[in-house]
Amino acid sequence: MKTLLLIALFFQTFSAYATYNMETRWCSEDGCLSYIGNYGTPLGETIRMNDEREKAYHIFNILRESGEDFDHEISVFTGEQLDIESIVEDKQIEFETKEKFNPVFDGEYLYFQKWENGKLNLYRDENKLYSSEEFFKFLGKENGHLLIRDRGRIKLHHGEELNALESLKEYSVSFLRWIDEGRVLCYAERDMDGRRHLILASVHEDELLDSYSVPDGTFLDAAVSSNLQHLYYYSGTSQSYVLHKYHTDTESWEIHKEFSEPVRLLGVRGEEVVWWDPKSEEVKINAVGELKINEHENLKLFPAGEYKSGEHGARLMQVEPDKLLVLFYPTRDKDFLKEKGLGRIEKFRGNNRTWLLPENYMSSFQALPEKMGHAFLSLEDMKIYYDKEDKALRNIFSLKIRPTASRYVVLLILGGVLLLLILSELFRKTKDFVK
Predict the structure, then answer these.
(1) Of 121, 150, 188, 214, which is most buried with the most CB atoms under 10 A?
(2) Exposed e or buried b per residue across 333-349, where buried means at least 16 C-beta atoms within 10 angstroms of its C-beta
(3) pLDDT tens digits for 322-358?
(4) Closest C-alpha to 110, from 96, 129, 134, 132
(5) What is the pTM of this model?
(6) Residue 48 region, left (φ>0) first, then alpha (ψ -120 to 50), else beta?
């Protein structure tokens, strides 16, 4: 019995500390950059891998901004670090390049991240709010509260101070969804025992409101109602995709809906859970209401550029871009949305972001570039803020979106103009006849 326990303990320890070498490669006409990092299995290691990819992508942009051919490898085997200064010094590149990305506009200020002189900074217009030599993720702003994820830890910037959220200090957070201006829903791993949880936390009071062990399956998304009574967890298994619902009376999860093909969990509005079913091309509202979608677009986002990746030594695979889904519904259905607690324009901010708009906004999106890094829809000024490559470095642009008149209105206007022309011609002929 003791032997079995020792064997079990060995495998548990081995799996907990098992590591793998992951290679990521970016290429352009001028050359390639490869980054090989060593990672473990905890959730914090996945976060670190994604953060290091972002930093390596910045180095790649600097190398191709130089205009010279390059073929560079940064590897754990050689001990070389993601040290921008030593790399550009070796290549004799002028180290003054800057790039801006991840824009968020709150109606008054434009927030964005900027690499400059080897450091990543968070800016509010021209004011620097935060700076780090490592990559960090800006998670957005609500009512003056800015959240940042720095190496898996959530930090709150309010006023002029940046402090770690005490309620989440023991967790590596990989997913965060704002519930409202003062509360968030997180998917996180506890450092002490490696257990994964869904966590409700208060930003204002810096307290953990509740914590839930999660069902089986690979985590895909989660959402909760504003009154915290309706909590959903969407996961995938080898056989199906499952939407779970948490019941507070029994303190347990039950299967709310099962799918043979993937859907997209959008969020919870009022007491209704909302998801997008690409097979039927419908937005489902708690399985009792359906909104037929006329058209939809997948905006391709490349936050860390286009790259190939895979375990070192194996064949590298092209990485799929992030896809921001834009759904266009018939304008006549706006009353139906109102009945279901949804606005005329909705932004769902889950693991996969989705925008829901009337179909008369569709033509505005045709002016967007095919490839972007990040995209943000501001309802305050009805603009899309996005970053794209300007030669090599990222830069921020904006596009005003407007509703277009329906064909009926256009025909009515054209008919009115035609009628005015006819009347004008008749008036001219009558005037000539009188003379």
Answers:
(1) 188
(2) beeebeebebeebbbbe
(3) 999 999 999 999 888 888 889 999 999 999 999 999 9
(4) 129
(5) 0.87
(6) alpha
